[in-house]
Each structure stands twice: as structure tokens, then as C-alpha cells.
Design brief:
Layout (H helix, E strand, L loop, with lengths): L10 E8 L3 E8 L5 E7 L6 E3 L5 E3 L2 H12 L6 H15 L4 E3 H15 L1 H28 L1
Parallel strand pairs: 4-6
Antiparallel strand pairs: 1-2, 2-3, 4-5
Helix pairs in contact: 1-2, 1-4, 2-3, 3-4
Bound molecules: zinc ion.
The site of zinc ion has 8 residues, from loops.
Length: 145
Amino acid sequence: MKCIYCEQSGTRVIDTRESQHRVRRRRECKDCGERFTTYEEVESLEIKVEKTDGETEAFDEDKIRSGLEKAVKKTPVGEDEVEEIIENVKSEVKNKKKVSSREIGRIIKNELKERNEVAYIRFASVYDSFEDLESLQKEVEALKE
Ligand SMILES: [Zn+2]
């Protein structure tokens, strides 16, 4: 989330309030210290995610969250930043009808790279090996045919 005052991209969430249809977050810019409020729609995104095997599934924010939580465990990347990353992923993909899991992985890797090297490497190693597994599986399937 970019600061509305200085346009730097690091903001800290200092307060979150959920109501029925939206989430209100009070944010503070890490750069200039200004505070502002954002309102986010609660509805989940109606986006299809295309996996590397060609199958599609619904965009699942919880799945992203649990992957991120594993990656940032015992690093200085906190819960707020995990939410921040998820918001950034959502804002990057929200105008698309379909997005590939590779694209989502790429966005997350970039986000983590900026924040913490350990979290980045952990995520990348899990994510990239998944990619490899899926492509390996695909090749095996192709051989069978
Ligand atoms: Zn600022």
C-alpha cells in the first residue's frame, strides 16, 4: 500500500476494524509518519487462478496467507506485513479475470525480497520446487500418453 502523502510503499497497519462489508485500516507511513485510513471490500475476489498443470481454482486468500505465514516464521516480518502483502497481491490481480499461480508467486516473491531475505528464500524454495514438481509430473503424464 502506497502512502497517500509521499507515495512510498511501506505502511504499517496500526488498527484494523472489520464491519460487515468492509475492513477499515488505520495506516501509518514508515517513511514520513503520516497516518491515513483505507477501506477495503471484504468480498473475496472473483478471480480464477490457473495452475501450472492447466487446471483452474478460485483465488484463495487463506491459502496465500498460510504459505506466507510459514515463510515469515521467526523473521521480523510481522502479521501486518503479511496482510500488506496479501493486499498488494490482490490489488495487482483484482482487475483480471484470470491469473496464473506463477504470476501470484512472482508477486509474492518480489514482496518478500524487499522485506526479508530469509522469508524470501523460504518462500521461493517451497514455491519453486512446487513448480518443478508440477512440471515434472506433467512430463511424466505426457510420457504415459
Ligand atoms: Zn509517507
